[in-house]
Model the fold of this input.
Amino acid sequence: MTKLLVSTSDTKVRYQSREALPLIIVDSPKCHAVISLYGGQILEFNATGKPPLLWLSPLAIFEQGKAIRGGVPVCAPWFGPYSGPERKGITYPNHGFARTSFWQQTNVTVTQDGDVNITLALGPNELSNAIYPHQFKMKIEFTLSEELAIEFSLENNSIEPIDCEWALHSYFAIDDIATVSVSGLAGCQFMDKTLGNSVATLNGQLTFSQEVDRCFVDGTTTQIINCKTPIKVSGDNCDSVITWNPGALLAATMTDVGSDSYRQFVCVERGATFDKKWQIAPEQRHSATMVLSNLIR
Done:
């Protein structure tokens, strides 16, 4: 009989937070994972016998209305500042509302070979109705095995087309940002947010000697994070690649990162941004998958 433990907890118990945000805990022969229903966000993952794949800030804030720093936040249905038509008196949160909404668990299954599949769903709520007045269903499905696969989808249940710009904002655990590089993006154009979204082309590998905030709107299928325990990031139907680390100066101003913790993570994200954003016809559904894994055996 396959040993499997899927249990529930909350952030007050696990992370000593003031608020008790609900968690799903998975411990199987293949991996360990922690998923937050707040934000639809996986916070921890490591394959059995391998180091943690994801970074969760030791200063993370678990509080309604605030995004959790670390794991894989879901930025949707827009990425970065809101740029659509605005309604007077409405505040539009950065990176959309998915990462600060409560998702519902709709499915937990175990395959014959021991993979665990967990599906969460998000539909219209009070927050979304005010800023995104559409009928929709977002889903995120986690496949927990020797690697981590995340499928994100949006179904348009409206009578008119809807847009969705999104990213799975992956924070990866590394030993030291000063020695990390990312390969697989050489020759690709990027928009550099630190330079007013000026456009340039990457030559060679991407390194992180200072703040890096770059969006490769049309990136490549696979990237490798070169560090002590190399990490592979690949995507299907999520052409955009976003790379980020705040660097020392910005990190020192961020209460949920701090002056030293920035050295311990790098973000290599997959999504659909700018002119690659999804345009979904009525009664249609778009989906994409990101797969993350440690390359060490």
Q: What stands out?
A: The first strand starts at residue 5 and ends at 10. The two ends are 25 Å apart (CA to CA). The CA atoms of residues 81 and 283 lie 27 Å apart.
